Amino acid sequence: MPRKLPPLNSLPSFEAAARHLSFSRAAEELNVTHGAISRAIKHLEDQLDVQLFERATRSVRLTAVGEPYARAVREALDRLSNATATATTRHSNSTLNVSTSDGFAGKWLVPRLYRFHREHSEIDVRVSTTGQLSSFLGDGIDIAIRYGGGNYPGLTAEFLTEEEVFPVCSPRLVAGKRALRKPADLKHHTLIHDAFPIDWATWLASAGVEGVDPQSGITFDSATFAVEAAVQGEGVVLGRTMLVAADLATGRLVRPFAHALKSTSSFYVVYPPGAIRQRKVKAFRDWLLAELAPPGN
To answer: What is the maximum span of the chain, computed from C-alpha positions, in angstroms?
Structure first.
């Protein structure tokens, strides 16, 4: 019996619009015009003879029919994408494309990758730090390490580790005429900023520190550069557990005071459903979990 299928070329437009609840953002993701998205969805609705979206002047939302249909289409496209990558990519079994932030890559992942390669020399790893969240659908990414709340619809997200946030600096700054001995001493030192959500204003308020301008200092877009500036003695940065552990262990950085904030976000390893069946994805995921397992586990 022949399958009853929708117009297949309309499905990516529908899935993207349903995920973003925006025709414009779907158009940006798929690199087409807003009109092309609108026409594709209208064609799909006409062929199905159902309304998938309720359209308002500045917004759209899924109908009672559209919502479960969007979930089913997303799952089908994910399975099709994974199957296509496996079937058509010549190096699909030997090249693993990993997406993560530049800070995690530079300060944690890259210094340890040799251990993964030692165990899996047949897998070539390519690390992307573009700053954009991978959609896993057409961008070639196999697995990602994300920092957030763990809610990634349509994806499998496994907890890796949580973080604390605390000031760190070069050992040179805890000695001398204006040594850092208590949080109030920060008024004598340069504050280093990056794009992390917990900023100096938040940390200073939690520590009960007044008289320090939380906006002053130097700012970097890159967490890696911000930490390196602290290593070089340029000032004090808010360190995050995962990004400063190695520099603390080697003595390149020190914690001048104990007060820390627990971050509301954590690290997760994220991948499309079914991707874990690929040997390279499972190998990398298992290695991450082993590297981050608490001592003694």
So the answer is: 85
Q: Residue 9, class by beta-carbon neighbours within 10 Å (0-12 exposed, 13-18 middle, 19+ buried)? A: exposed
Q: What is the pLDDT of residue 91?
A: 46
Q: Which residues of the chain have pLDDT under 50?
A: 90-91
Would you call 221 exposed, middle or buried from its count of C-beta atoms within 10 A (0-12, 13-18, 19+)? Answer: exposed
Number of neighbours of residue 20 by Cβ within 10 angstroms: 15
Q: Specify the pTM.
A: 0.64
Q: Is 60 helix (H, G, I), strand (E, B) or coil?
A: strand
Span 10-69, pLDDT tens digits:
999 999 999 999 999 898 888 889 999 999 999 999 999 999 999 988 889 999 999 999
* Residue 188, φ and ψ in degrees, nearest 5: -95, 5
88 within a domain of the structure (yes/no): no
155 and 274, same domain (yes or no) = yes
Tell whether 56 and 139 lie within a shared domain: no
Angle at 47 between CA 45 and CA 51, to 5 degrees: 20
